[in-house]
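Could you join me in thinking about how sequence relates to backbone shape in a protein? We need material for that, and I hope you will provide a protein of your own picking. Once you have written the record down, we can walk along the chain together:

…
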Amino acid sequence: MAINRHSLEQVQFVSVEGGAVQVRVYQPHADKARMRTPLLVTHGGPGGSSIGLYDALNQLADRRPIIFYDQLGSFSSPAELSLKQMTLERFASEPLQILDQLHLKRVHLLGHSWGGSVMTQFCLSHPERVSKLILSSPLLSTQQWIEDCNHLLKEIKSDLRVDADIKGEFEKRHFCLNKEATDFICSESRRTNTRLYECMWGSSEFIHSGVLATLNFFPRLDQITASTLLICGDNDTATPSTLQNAKDRIGLNAQLQVLSNAGHKTYIDCNQQFIEIISTFLDDKSNSTA
C-alpha cells in the first residue's frame, strides 16, 4: 500500500491588507524533513491559484514543509479588489503577513509567472526573511514580456495562413506543450479570476492593457542577495534570452535552468525534471541553510 510521506497539517486564513488569504501548510512525516527550511509557494495570473502547483509539485512536500497560498482575490482567497489595491507592492506584502502569522523567521520562496514578480518584490523588500529564491518562468518586466511575445507571434504568423487561430496556436506552442495535460489546464483555468487578470494584465498573454505597465525589475535585480534559481522552458513566454539577462544582472548568486520541450507551464511539461532541479537547489547547503 502506498502511503503519502506528507500530510496537509493546517489550513487557515491570514489577514492581509484588503481581506484574508488562504494558507495551506503541508508537513513531511519524517522528523528530519520537518526541520528543513520551509518553502513558500504562490501562483501566477494575476488571479490564478496555487492548487494546481500543489497537484504538480506535491513530491516536494516529502522533503520539507511547504506552504501554498492563493493571493487575495484569487480562487481560495476571494475578495473584490479596487484598482488601488491591485498593486505589486500590496500583493508582495502578503508573504510577510503569512510568515509572521506562522511564526517563521526565514523561508525559501517559489513564484511562478506573475507569482515570480510577487516573490521578487518581497525578496527585495525583506531580504532578511529569504533563504533562497526560485523564479519559475517569472514576469520580470512587462515591456520585455510584450516584446518577447510579439517576436513569438511574428514567427507564428509567418508560419500560418491569415485566418488561422493565432491565439490558439500561441498557447499550443508557448503555454503548455503536454497534450495529455488538457484536463489539468482546464481545471486551472476554471479557478482563474478573469476580472482580476484582465484588470491587472489584459485580454491575453501577449496583449497588455492593465495596471502593470511599468513593472520592471531589471534595474534592481543586482540588489537580490539570496541564492536564486531561474527556470524556464525553451519555448516559454518568459524566454531563455530574457532570463539569461536576468541571471547576469543578479550575478554570481544566480543560476538558470532551461527545460527542453517546455512552454510556460514548465512544471507540467517537464514535471519530474522540474521537481528534481528544485530539490537539488534547495538541498544545496553551499549558499544558505537548506
Notes: The chain has a mean pLDDT of 95. The domain at 6-283 is CATH 3.40.50.1820 (Rossmann fold). The longest strand covers residues 6-16. The chain has one domain: 6-283.
